[in-house]
Amino acid sequence: MPGLHAKLQQRTFGDYGHFLNHRQAISHCGRYLVYDTRNADSDIAKTTRIESLDLRDNSIRILYDTHSQSIHGPGVGAVVCHPLRSTVVFIHGLTHCDELQPYSMTRRFGACLHIEPSVPNSDPKSKLVSIESRSLQTAIPWGVLRGGTHAHSFSSDGTWISFTYNDALAPEHRTVGF
């Protein structure tokens, strides 16, 4: 681009992936860059952590670790930042993944992490909550999903989260929701 004078600088050096979502990867305050630790787009099932990079001092903090990871899941990834506060949303596979029921596009949910301030260079205190309800019954209550969400994105005022949804009983019918 004409007039753009940029200097490239490597900011992370870990021997694992640093995968940026293509939207809302920078915190509301502009200080942190959030990412997951996969090496390839298709590796969410194998990915264990959500991290942040402090753009002031290049320190890395683990925001979330699955602690129960296997080759079948649960897996995490595609993290986005809330536009007004220290909150992130990301894909999280169901916690009871195994060989018969591995991570898949219908076996995941939107996870919301409210990040509390912490001492520099330490892991922040945070609480994970699901942003959706799930039921695999034929007749499901209003507002309850029976599949998996992904492609989460906050509205500019942070009051809405859009997502793409894959139904477990009709996975070929991808829909969009808020």
Verbal overview:
- A hairpin with a 5-residue loop joins β2 and β3 (60-65).
- This protein has one domain (32-177).
- It is 0% helix and 37% strand.
- With 178 residues, the chain is mostly beta strands.
- The mean pLDDT is 87.
Determine the N-to-C terminus distance.
36 Å
| CA-based gyration radius | 17 Å
Count of helical stretches:
0
Helix/strand/pairing category: mainly beta
Order of neighbouring strands in the sheet with most strands: 4-5-6-7
Shape: globular
Q: What is the string of helix and strand elements?
A: EEEEEEEEEEEE
How helical, in percent, are the residues? Answer: under 10%
Topology:
Layout: E1 32-36, E2 49-54, E3 60-65, E4 76-81, E5 87-93, E6 108-115, E7 126-130, E8 133-134, E9 144-145, E10 147-154, E11 161-167, E12 174-177
Parallel strand pairs: 8-9
Antiparallel strand pairs: 1-2, 2-3, 4-5, 5-6, 6-7, 10-11, 11-12
Which key phrases capture this entry?
178 residues, mainly beta, four-stranded antiparallel beta sheet, three-stranded antiparallel beta sheet, 12 strands, 0% helix, globular
State the gist of this model.
The chain contains no helices and twelve strands. By secondary structure, the chain is mostly beta strands. Strand 10 and strand 11 form a beta hairpin.
